[in-house]
Amino acid sequence: MQKIIFISSVPIIAALLLSACNNSEKTEVNNSQALPKTAEIIIKEPSKNQKTDTIFPKKESSQGIMKKASKSINSSGDKLIFNSEQLFKGDVIYNQNLKQKGVVTGTLTITLNTDSLPDELKNNYELVKSTAHNYTLLVEKDVDIAGLSKDLNNYSSVSNVEVAIDYSPIETHF
Q1: What span, in angstroms and rounded, lies between the C-alpha atoms of 125 and 128?
Q2: What pLDDT sits at residue 52?
Q3: In this structure, are residues 75 and 162 in contact, taking their beta carbons and an 8 Å threshold?
Q4: Which residues make Cβ contacts (< 8 Å) with residue 110, sequence separation at least 6?
Q5: CB-based contacts of 38: which residues, under 8 Å, 6+ apart?
Q6: Which of 94, 101, 123, 143 could be bridged to 81 by S-S, CB 3.0 to 4.6 A?
Q7: Considering the domain boundaries, does residue 28 fall inside one?
């Protein structure tokens, strides 16, 4: 009789334990959603005379970028939002259409209305032909990409300027 009671009580005890574990996980999830936690990655860089620590924020919410944003540009129909007055290679942007953060690679793809490259663009920029109407422009580190994109869009022969963005996890870039 004791074996029957013991065997029949095992599933009841197991069910109680599982429900208790599930409730504790739900409260942990609710607590983590209520209070966003920010962590930092510390990279120690050894030098000849002294050690320095470089601190990068591990995760910045995309809402933070949008709240602090001062400017935006359009790139192939996507609205790119950024925090500074100028946009440089390596800056973090927020793509409002994709609802995703990315890093500016420093490459612009220019689509022309004509088959040949106009002299006004050929003389001012170092463009590399990629397809019949598309050209690629590699931007240096200190060039304002937002301003350059607007300047290129002002040419009558240019139909589209696309800023290349890397959407892989941002932590891998630094």
Answers
A1: 10
A2: 45
A3: yes
A4: 121, 127, 134, 135, 136, 137, 152, 158, 160, 161, 162
A5: 57, 58, 59
A6: 94
A7: no
Range of the domain at 148: 60-173
Is there a domain that residue 78 lies in?
yes
Q: Confidence band (pLDDT; 50, 70, 90) for 56? A: very low
**How many domains in the chain?**
1
The answer to whether residue 98 is domain-embedded is yes
Q: Give the per-residue pLDDT at 1.
A: 57
- Provide CB contacts within 8 A for 164, sequence distance 6+: 104, 105, 106, 107, 108, 109
Looking at the predicted structure, is the pLDDT value of residue 107 above 80? Answer: yes
Flag whether 11 is in a domain: no
